[in-house]
């Protein structure tokens, strides 16, 4: 330890001691006191059924926060990463961001008369799903670039925010933000109350995610990691502006998730929560050969009654490889049907 | 405001009220009390001389934290960004990271006999500065790629940490971390104590910065923004690994700084501190046409006695365009000579 480190630690200890003194007369019970005496009275995860899954989550949090236990993890290293689509809110029948992109192309069609005969735009405008699917990744990128770029970051934020406010889920007929999962929001708050820093790590684009992550999940912009497009700094009309260019900067999916986590957070998570094969590498990065307490979680959509039931054969949110790996890797498969008392946030 | 936002706000208010109640009996004075009564007794910036500069900084912090004042900024928006080289530590006669790269090439020369005749490596090994300078950006990139890539992120961290621990500044003959500026560390802590989130926004590479940012400045990895190289996720020997590839991912300098800030933080800073033309756009992005309370600061190296004196004609840390713009932009030019009582952290 360098002199500087030891001094920083001493200062930190002094600060902690002062804080402890200052709050010595306080009536707020510490975590240890609360969990010892009031466990029955206070349930941090009321929308989770009392199953083995819930017990495992609480056991993990208790272990990493117990300073005298072998699984203790210092607060700074308590990083938890959550996928978004299918993990924090509904992703069926299509990702909300794709629905946004299609709606945006339809709006822009007024100023792009040439799109009436130009694929894939014609297909989008006329709702020709087969042609759109046939256009594949190339077609998708064209739609995303047309809907997501060519404006300032500020304007994009306004457009995306208005869509999030006004759009309705095509089948469940509610605003998308009302299709966020209540048990997950409780889990985010429970982790934060136990010293975790929570992050969204999504294949969706970071600027789209940021328009609703704070009000919907309580996750601020700086803790949202996603795919991104290239932006260029400019001064326009006496104001600094970031122009969104039609060029992909980073894809935060599959093996891109550990890359994004490393780039943005610079530490390995100790908890990762996903729901599809796109989250395989994030869970593997978090739990494999870590030598410390870690927890990988996979949400299994097995609830056709309250939400959707899909896994291995689904186009959206395919869960196959990760489901096969879960048992050997020690990942907890969360059953929406059995483990969740409530699914959606209350209106 | 959506229902969800209003609920989140209500919950936050309840939490704040509970916290206030719990600490009501505490002896710790609030910010307002401390600044009203004990100003003479408690100086948050003891290494800053009592000049107009220090007064402006304190005035700014008081304004953005005064909930009844017109300049109030909510805590979540109190983002402060600091350049590293020349702003938080010494950058003369050469950036520490360049010295690291040159040392690393010299170490690697043992396993690269071909470098004895291959430029720019021959020039590095033999200390042929003129040839190295003549090799320009292309030569520099070759040196950086040879020193910074082709290993795992974990191995790079070890190599860089050992260098930081062992290397000595070529002129001041101290470890680089002892050439961090004490007044700036006080400023970081002062801002954090007033609800700011502090970030490093440097042209240096993020993984090099992270090896010393926490122990030296108290800034954790997730609040370090820098240039980056491309990494690829792989499993090697049963362990997840990020392989560092010889490809530039992002240059966090000049107009790249606002891009990096937007990508990583997703909010505009309200305070930015730099020292060279490389920080021009960051200060401009922070302060120009913002309509809210902002503060731009430029450290002027005018102290040949205690550190170095340089600005317009310097190769490293050139301060010309930003110095010309400072007055009209309202940026505060901090004189190392006049405004700082102490320069370096104490050993």
Furnish the topology, listing elements before pairings:
Two copies of one chain form a homodimer.
Chain A (H helix, E strand, L loop, with lengths): L2 H20 L8 H7 L14 H14 L13 E4 L13 H13 L12 H6 L2 H6 L1 H13 L4 H14 L15 H12 L3 E9 H12 L6 E13 L2 E12 L5 H9 L6 E4 L5 H8 L7 E6 L20 H9 L2 E4 H4 L8
Parallel strand pairs in A: 1-2, 1-5, 2-3, 5-6, 6-7
Antiparallel strand pairs in A: 3-4
Q: Please give the order of strands in the largest beta sheet of chain A.
A: 4-3-2-1-5-6-7
Give the strand tally of chain A.
7
Q: How large a portion of the residues of chain A is in β-strands, by DSSP E?
A: 5-15%
Determine the fraction of residues in helical runs of chain A and give it as a percent range: 40-55%
Structural class estimated from helices and strands of chain A? alpha/beta
Give the gist of this structure.
The structure is a homodimer of 347-residue chains. Chain A is an alpha/beta fold and 347 residues long.
Please describe what this structure looks like:
Two copies of one chain form a homodimer. The radius of gyration of chain A is 22 Å and the shape is globular. Chain A has 347 residues and is α/β, with parallel strands linked by helices. Chain A has helices at 3-22, 31-37, 52-65, 96-108, 121-126, 129-134, 136-148, 153-166, 182-193, 206-217, 256-264, 280-287, 321-329, 336-339; strands spanning 79-82, 197-205, 224-236, 239-250, 271-274, 295-300, 332-335. Chain A has a seven-stranded mixed β-sheet, sandwiched between helices. In chain A, helix 4 (96-108) crosses helix 7 and helix 8 (153-166) crosses helix 10 (206-217). In chain A, strand 2, helix 10 (206-217) and strand 3 form a beta-alpha-beta unit. Chain A contains 14 helices and seven strands. The interface between A and B is large, with 55 and 57 residues.
């Amino acid at each position: 330890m360098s002199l500087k480190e030891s001094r920083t630690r001493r200062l930190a200890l002094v600060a902690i001691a002062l804080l402890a003194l200052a709050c010595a007369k306080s009536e707020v019970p510490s975590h240890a006191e609360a969990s010892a005496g009031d466990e029955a009275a206070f349930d941090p995860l009321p929308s989770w059924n009392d199953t083995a899954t819930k017990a495992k989550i609480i056991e993990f949090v208790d272990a990493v926060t117990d300073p005298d236990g072998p699984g203790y993890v210092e607060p700074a290293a308590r990083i938890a990463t959550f996928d978004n689509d299918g993990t924090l809110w509904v992703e069926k029948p299509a990702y909300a961001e794709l629905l946004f992109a299609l709606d945006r192309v339809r709006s822009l069609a007024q100023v792009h008369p040439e799109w009436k005969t130009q694929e894939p735009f014609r297909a989008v405008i006329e709702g020709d799903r087969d042609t759109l699917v046939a256009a594949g990744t190339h077609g998708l990128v064209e739609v995303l670039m047309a809907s997501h770029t060519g404006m300032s970051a500020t304007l994009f934020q306004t457009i995306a925010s208005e869509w999030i406010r006004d759009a309705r889920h095509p089948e469940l007929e509610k605003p998308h933000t009302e299709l966020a999962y209540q048990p997950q929001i409780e889990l985010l708050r429970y982790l934060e109350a136990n010293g975790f820093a929570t992050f969204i790590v999504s294949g969706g684009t970071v600027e789209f995610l940021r328009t609703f992550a704070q009000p919907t999940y309580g996750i601020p912009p700086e803790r949202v990691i996603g795919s991104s497009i290239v932006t260029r700094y400019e001064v326009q009309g006496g104001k600094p502006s970031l122009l969104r260019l039609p060029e992909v900067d980073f894809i935060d999916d599959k093996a891109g998730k550990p890359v994004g986590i490393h780039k943005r957070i610079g530490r390995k998570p100790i908890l990762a929560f996903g729901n599809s094969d796109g989250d395989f590498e994030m869970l593997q990065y978090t739990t494999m050969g870590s030598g410390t307490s870690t927890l990988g979680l996979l949400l299994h959509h097995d609830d056709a009654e309250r939400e959707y039931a899909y896994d291995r054969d689904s186009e959206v949110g395919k869960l196959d490889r990760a489901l096969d790996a879960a048992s050997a890797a020690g990942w907890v498969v969360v059953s929406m049907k059995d483990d969740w008392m409530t699914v959606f946030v209350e209106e």
